[in-house]
Amino acid sequence: xxxxxxxxxxxxxxxxxxxxxxxxxxxxxxxxxxxxxxxxxxxxxxxxxxxxxxxxxxxxxxxxxxxxxxxxxxxxxxxxxxxxxxxxxxxxxxxxxxxxxxxxxxxxxxxxxxxxxxxxxxxxxxxxxxxxxxxxxxxxxxxxxxxxxxxxxxxxxxxxxxxxxxxxxxxxxxxxxxxxxxxxxxxxxxxxxxxxxxxxxxxxxxxxxxxxxxxxxxxxxxxxxxxxxxxxxxxxxxxxxxxxxxxxxxxxxxxxxxxxxxxxxxxxxxxxxxxxxxxxxxxxxxxxxxxxxxxxxxxxxxxxxxxxxxxxxxxxxxxxxxxxxxxxxxxxxxxxxxxxxxxxxxxxxxxxxxxxxxxxxxxxxxxxxxxxxxxxxxxxxxxxxxxxxxxxxxxxxxxxxxxxxxxxxxxxxxxxxxxxxxxxxxxxxxxxxxxxxxxxxxx
Length: 443
Ligand code: IFM
Description:
By secondary structure, this protein is an alpha/beta fold. The chain is built from 15 helices and 15 strands. It has a single domain, classed as TIM Barrel, CATH 3.20.20.80. The chain has an eight-stranded parallel barrel, surrounded by seven helices. The chain has a two-stranded antiparallel sheet with strand order 1-15. It has a two-stranded antiparallel sheet with strand order 7-8. The longest helix is centred in the middle third of the chain and has 25 residues, at about 185-210. 5-hydroxymethyl-3,4-dihydroxypiperidine binds near residues 19, 22, 219 and 279.
């Protein structure tokens, strides 16, 4: 029986993504370990605890699972507070463990992508103001020099900062992440310092490794005004889009950080990205709301009939990824989807979510946009920040008590996709028959 197949470009990176604090376990020296100890900050007061126990060695079994199921790459982050436990000391043993992980990956023909900052900060840094302090970009750059120098023989794909937009929004506007503040002024300062930290790190990485590919992973939300004809809905959607989606990456092109209410020139940041890292989960409908000045008078909602994830956290709207790809394409740089996925304990939504989002990626690749890879969030269920263990994003499930891994059927689907370097009608029929007609109308 002839097959219909959506093929991806040769050499495409197929992987999954994780972050240190979410999988390693027993991180005790960073802002999140302190936040977890504060009652009421994490859903059900849960703790990351042993997480997926990567620090004690489970990384190898999980990455072996990834490798054996067809993934040729993995995105992980390294934990600043382990490598530099105090401002004056470096822990070379901890650093060496990361070297061991990336060396293992290279020896097993998996391309490592390393994130240098993924939401966590060492306590010594937090206690001097963290990213509110203008000295932090320099300290971050110093950490990057140490880490990149140690890992550079095995790694040349770097994300300096993961989701600076979420880090600032949740930490300094919504207050759900540490330090739990709500101040537009401080949020703007922190964003500016993150740009400066990225720019300094970018230069150091290229000094140490001229061929390095360096990017930042933005969490792109597709923001649609509730009524296209209504300027009151359009205005907050446009402002939020500028601040949340566009400001950081545009500044890395132009050197101007445009946060709508404040503009800052950061000339050293111009032309400091080699690819666009795109994290995409969902789309929001933006309604004008006079009671939301802190959100520039925009209230976000999912469409009424949305295809929702287990806890309602994510709506399956693949067209929003298309918006993100279009936005990323205008930078005229290669694009890597550095995160995309859905919390879905029963794995009833994930197969169609995965296929429909990859279909958008395929479309972009077939316009010959430079799409280089896709990293599913996540390899295995892990600690979901202020949502604790209530959300399950893994291809593999995790029994937090026993550390047992549970192979979800999405593993089989993703394995077939990775090994085929494409999506066939037979895969869709087998794993998500409800969308067969949408993807393959003539089958
Ligand atoms: O778990 C997070 C990750 O750390 C950053 N991006 C979104 C994911 C899902 O919430």
